[in-house]
Amino acid sequence: MDPQLVDQLHNADPAVRRKAIIVLGRSKDLTALSELAQVYRADPVPELRELARQAGRYIQQENRPAPEPVAPPPDAELEPAPLDAISSPVTPAVPAMTPAPMPAPAITPADVQRGAAYFRSARSLSESGEQARAIKELALALHADPGLANEPVFITLASEVLGAPPRAAIRTLLDPERRQAAFRAAVAAQRRVIRQRGCALGPVLAALALFLALGALALTVWWIVDGDAIDSVRHRYTVWRLTEDERSLPGGRTYYLYEPSGVIPAGGWAVIVALHGGGATGEDMLTPELIDLADDERALLVAPNLDMASALSGAPDSRAGALEGLSEIVAHVREAYAVSAEGVALYGYDQGARLATAFLAAHPEQVYAAVAESPSGIFVPEPREGEGMPVPPLTLVFSASDTLAETTQPEIDALRAQGHTVEVVLVEGEARQMTEDGRRALRRILDAIRAA
After folding, report:
1. Which residues neighbour 111 within 8 Å (Cβ) at sequence distance 6 or greater?
2. Max Cα–Cα distance, the chain, nearest Å
3. Distances (CA, A) of 26 to 52, 107, 109, 420
């Protein structure tokens, strides 16, 4: 096995890792199985983990004795017609003569991938009660990848769908006549179930239709009378959906992500990374204002869950861990979504604002600009040598009554001396609050990202 290919499996570029997985799979080298297994367990990209699994199966398949010839894929008569259009069973045509069996072709990674796709489709159809179509998908899966006949999960599903012992179910899928008979029986059973449900559900559906009509009328009246209440309900539902779909990374780091509906912007997504204050969580940054801003500006809203108490305790190790964790979240979003090159803007308040300035100092290459509202301190990076180092602009928003605007002036001067564009905005009201002025500054940054 080529050591260079093993090194490429750990390359930071997913495209390089993907190419190495394909080459190792095509090598059919059994010694590559351990490296592919490690990729399957640890690679951060789900598609590459699945590709490594398929490559490993392909190598195992190629090093087994050749499988017995399998039956041809199900013919067009297995395609289920609409239930209301089925009047009599269809008998497949009997060929005039049976040709001699051909040697089984070599199974490629593409065949394994197709077989897995057909298997997943069959499982979904079976779970939804469409057993006839599930039989067809199982037969297609077995034709694409005969090795599935030895997979326990495939055998179990085939037995459940066909209602037969495991090995008898596999033989039915391989025999065209038995498979066709099982398909017709499944179609007939499904028709009987639908007729029975139709008779039983008629009154229930009528009552449900009346209930929904009354509910729609009440909702329309409510919408007209109290639009703000509707918006509040919609926002609470959105937040509930996002928190239920919490994203996680290795090491226990978690975050929430809101993606506006519709197509991806032509230049790629802009990203708002919203950092919460002390004693809060990422859920607190899923505010109606920020979600509406993400919708208006066609930007992803990312709200990490961070331990601000330890991140800003002053201990270098704790701060470094929080910064690296945030860097991993930003990198993961960039890799998983089509993010524009400029694309990431930081937005934080209170301790989240202070962390934003620390991240700006530690990882300027990952940030286009930052907005910090009432930061409890400002981090200044060590002077860096060399030309071309990124110096992202920073907007600081302070309340007019906030003394931090004066105590942080030396740090502001130091940032400006290093080439950072630092804008200071004073607003009316209490300190350490998310303000319209801060969101307005964030909107200007997103407009600049979209223009770029």
Report:
1. 144, 145
2. 95
3. 12, 11, 8, 51
**Nearest C-alpha neighbor of 370 from the set 444, 320, 426:** 444
User: CA 144: distance to chain centroid?
Assistant: 28
**Cα 357 to Cα 82: distance, rounded to the nearest angstrom:** 62
Determine the Cα–Cα distance for residues 340 and 346; give it in Å rounded to an integer: 15
Going along the chain from its start, the domains and CATH numbers come out as 3-62 (1.25.10), 232-451 (3.40.50.1820)
**Do the strands 247-248 and 422-427 form a parallel or antiparallel pair, or are they unpaired?**
unpaired
pLDDT in tens, 248-264: 888 778 999 999 988 88
* pLDDT tens readout for residues 6-42: 889 889 998 899 999 988 888 888 888 888 888 888 8
Per-residue pLDDT at 82:
47
Give the integer Cα–Cα distance in Å for 349 and 441: 13
Q: Which of 295, 322, 329, 320 is nearest to 308 (CA)?
A: 322
Q: How far, in Å, CA of 247 to CA of 264, rounded?
A: 20
Write out residues in the chain with pLDDT < 50, as ranges: 75-104
Tokens of 294: 């993400």
Residue at token pair 């990848």: 145
Read off the tokens for 235.
């926002």
pLDDT of residue 41: 86
Pair 253, 331: CB distance under 8 Å: no
User: Is the CB of residue 364 less than 8 Å from the CB of residue 380?
Assistant: no
In which region does residue 124 sit, left (phi positive, over 0), alpha (psi from -120 to 50) or beta (all else)?
A: alpha
Q: Tally Cβ neighbours within 10 Å of residue 221.
A: 10
Q: What is the pTM of this model?
A: 0.50
